[in-house]
Amino acid sequence: MKRGLIHWDRTELPPAAFEARLDGVRRTLAERNLPALVVYADVWRSNQARYLLNFMPYWNRSLAVIPREGKPILLCGLSPRVYPWIRSVTVLEEIRPSGNPARGLLELASAERWKRIGILDLPLLPQEIAAPLCAGPVEVVNVPSNGFSEQGSAGLPGMDDWELLMRRRAAQMARKTLAEELAQGAGAPDCQLVGRLERAFRRAGAEDLVILLSDGRTVPIPARGKVLREGFSVTVALEYRGHWVKLSRPQASVQVAESLENHWKILLHDFQRLAEPPIYTELLSGPYPYEFCDRFELRPGDLFAFHVEFRAGGRRLFYGDSCRFGETGPELL
Description:
This protein is an alpha+beta fold. The chain has two domains: 15-143, Creatinase/prolidase N-terminal domain (Creatine Amidinohydrolase, Chain A, domain 1), CATH 3.40.350.10; 161-332, Creatine Amidinohydrolase, CATH 3.90.230.10. The protein has helices at residues 15-31, 47-53, 83-89, 101-112, 127-134, 161-181, 190-204, 254-269; strands at 36-41, 62-67, 73-76, 94-97, 116-120, 139-143, 206-214, 233-240, 243-250, 279-283, 291-292, 303-312, 315-326, 329-332. The strands form three sheets. A six-stranded mixed beta sheet has the order 4-3-2-1-5-6, sandwiched between helices. It is elongated, with a radius of gyration of 21 Å.
């Protein structure tokens, strides 16, 4: 199920957090002499719209328009019957039906007499939306997210304390549940473990999950109905209130698990200078929930997942966690 109940707990993530983020957008628009910024969102690429507006679509594509003066406007192809729900879980008040997002945006620009508009990460915009915009009467300007803010990371327009708090809550949920469920997996079909994890994570508030397993011979892959033996590993990508984290844990004795964790921490400290053992890094703070990234290109402010493959007793074991690239280097989130 893609995204369970989406709920906005304003005591957990207050409206003031989004007001501050939108103020930052407006300052950038003023500096660049742009009347509005357009943010694309779909069911998978929603990190940026979620960060700025708390908007996480279940399906379809949308354009969020943030004027330099005035409140944000959402152009989307969703049925009006879901507009009350969207307003209840986002900072959006004005929602306009738009089966053709490009046309809707051009009509809005014409009505507002905008001659130029900024598009967040224009090269990543789907071609069927980008082409008519680039050929239209309004000049579209690329606003790259990696240069959006002095505080910015490679994907989000800034990384504030609220963002870090929510990501850490998601990571703590993942660590706790994996620690409780992992020991019960050996001797049963892998799909049973996945089912237990799914139930535990959903009950804890996870909206989306991707669970992969390794039997010690392969990289983590989807469950296949095979019986798990001692020495398997689980990789979990988890979304909590729209905030994604990713972890890998091996099923092993306490001694082996602690040894791998300690070795992982040493490798994390020097991971940009290491080639072995196999190291995998994924950007968490980009426009997508997670995507491969070159660890040598990570910069302060980035959130990323760091996985290491170890060999023990002829088996492949995987350990990984979600991290932040701080001012003094990488650190556990």
